[in-house]
Input
Amino acid sequence: MQSMVVDRYLRYSEIADYISCQWRHDKKFNQGLISTDLVPARDFGSAFHIGIAAAILAWIDDPDPKYVRTKASIAIEQWADSLIENLDTMGDAAYNEIVQIIRDLQESAYQCVRRTLNTFLKLEEWETVIVNGVPAVELEILMSQEDYPDFVPPGWPGVTAHIDWIARHIPTDTTWIIDHKTLKQLKTEEQEELRLQFPMYQKIAQRLGIAVNGTKTLQVRSTPPSIPAETKGGLSRARIATTWSVYKSELIKRGLDPRDYAEMKTKLDVIFHRWSTTWRPQEEIDGVWNRVILPVAASIARSWYDSVNFEPDDAAAQRSLGSIYCGFCDYRVLCIETLRGHDTTHILAKYRNATVAPADEPLDLRYFESDTGLYT
Ligand code: SF4
Output
């Protein structure tokens, strides 16, 4: 009989998965089934995060833009190399094709990092907060039950959080937990305000004595501005996903007068980045922790206990079939085929089994120091 202590640390991604679909959560976290498929949108996001983190850390050493870009480029290349290395044993016909997809992802992620640094993220306006002697970039925090018994939910050995960046905005002298995101379509301010991740991270930061004013998301459109098509004697005036500055530079390149295309200035209103800022009252932070995180943590602990102590039961964890999550769910085919009562052995072969689900695997940037609860 297992004791009632879950075999992994509680993290935001597990709570988010449990809330969105219990069946998916059960497969991923209780059964440890992790998809080995390349998911370009998700992998692009990982590469972007690695590039931005490398750029921020490089900026602290030397703010020379060329040095910063080179460091970002090297970090993304290393990410791609390691993905390719792990494909080595495949040896099938798709190998070269997948390598090319990874190299394309590497290049487009690097270009996205460049655009972000050139236009959206002015590193000179930010000072990275030093936590426990290290810059708070891709910061892994771990709070064990032993060290924080008053804080860690019962049934869990600890809580862990992965924070993209904590930085002081120099012009306003305010400090923020910052999350970077790449998306095809940017989300609205309202959607960002209600992200569960942020109040949870604020609560953790508070408990560790890290002072922040609130949270910010930097959303970046993953695709670059489009280049307008040429027409006879000019440029197309169709509305496309681009900016006036890109459109104007294409006009100038062709010796065309931007004044003849003045109406395009307002027509090309696609937004390529958005900073969303949330100042959160203490009541909201406490309310989310007490009324969302703690009850969900208790439900997950029970679901884990049942999964290791009772016979597998496909209906025990509820499916959120038809929710917005089904469209890009890693367990979609397995979920449907199980519902149809089909043999799923060949589908299960596409998952690797992880005893501790490595969702949001930490970047190996620093080492955990047990007396402070922080990675250093
Ligand atoms: S496809 Fe939908 S219902 Fe099935 S596991 Fe995924 S999110 Fe849940």
Q: What stands out?
A: The longest helix spans residues 282-309.
